[in-house]
């Protein structure tokens, strides 16, 4: 019985020894293959190096203040706090009655000046005015046409008077020339008569008193002839003056018209600026959103409220197609961050595993560290996202300024092997260096 047990035990021991030797090598080969594969995978597999920091959503631009330059009475309010508005969308309206009346008055003045300009230009050119080119009221055109006819009638009358004066001066010259010619004939006859009388007087056949009378008559005629000759230059000068006056009547009329035309053109230029200013006043009665955004605060909520010039009426927080994220990065992590690096933004208000993240890019890095209220220092890094909402376009999840986020910035890549050997390399570099 004992020998049988010993034989059985020996057989079992031998079997175990044969089986252990047979199963050891396959296990060793499998383990070696796994180790080699793991080393190869660790050498080839790449891990992303990420710098992580907390942050918050900030407006893509400064909060926009909506103001009324002129002030007035609120006649319409088209928004409420929290509304999303598009750039240029009407927010509220100021009563424009007074501004529209002012604009209408200035336009009436402009129309009157334009009609006057057309009339004066025609007077200077000596043509008929063409009011059809300008869109002017009939009453204004009729007034200028009547004024032009009146001025032309006055000019015609003045020309007629000047022409009559010229004709009178020419008639006076003709009369003087006629009288002078008659005087010369009379003097010639008197000279002959005196010569004959003096001959007769020498022979005693002619009375002395008649001789004296003839001499006196000849002297009077010569004196009158002298006066007539002296009057000729004066008459010629008067004729020249009358001719110049006749010419100057039309010239003066055109000169005055040209002067008035220049002044009217200048007035039109000034009133053009006045109209633009008046139009701006009317346009500014409709207060519009300066940017796409959300109404953060509405200072006036009552129709008929009186607002002062420059008063702040609403605040618009800009909302862009992208978001700006202000991330806080520790000083020891900022060395490898560069503008343009990709980043992942996870919004704490939305579950990352359900709604995903926002992709973005590093825009800029703060020049120096900043301390928060807890005394911790950090660098401010601005990340710009590719879009402004999570979810799909049909059902976007809005993200507004102030929301808390987590930012992961991809700063590089390294293999799994390098990652695993990093502590070893660090220990080897620092080993046996301590005092």
Radius of gyration: 57 Å
> What gap, in angstroms, lies between the N and C termini?
72 Å
- Estimated structural class: alpha+beta
The main β sheet shows up as:
6 strands, antiparallel, barrel
Instruction: Return the domain count.
Output: 4
Uncertain residue ranges: none
Mean pLDDT: 79
- H-E string: HEEEEEHHHEEEEEEHEEEEEH
Number of strands: 16
Q: Helix count?
A: 6
Global geometry: rod-shaped
Strand percentage lies at 15-25%
Helical fraction: 40-55%
Spatial strand order of the main sheet: 1-10-13-12-11-16
Descriptive account of the structure:
This protein is an alpha+beta fold. It folds into four domains: 2-44; 48-60 and 320-430, Elongation Factor Tu (Ef-tu), domain 3; 64-95 and 289-316, RNA polymerase II/Efflux pump adaptor protein, barrel-sandwich hybrid domain (OB fold (Dihydrolipoamide Acetyltransferase, E2P)); 100-283. Helices cover 53% and strands 23% of the residues. The chain contains six helices and 16 strands. The protein has helices at 2-44, 97-125, 138-202, 208-283, 352-355, 416-430, and strands spanning 46-58, 64-67, 72-77, 84-85, 90-94, 286-288, 293-298, 306-307, 312-318, 324-329, 342-347, 358-371, 377-385, 389-390, 397-398, 404-415. The strands form four sheets. Strands 1-10-13-12-11-16 form a six-stranded antiparallel barrel. Strands 2-9-7-4 form a four-stranded antiparallel sheet, with no helix packed on it. The chain has a four-stranded antiparallel sheet with strand order 6-5-3-8, with no helix packed on it.
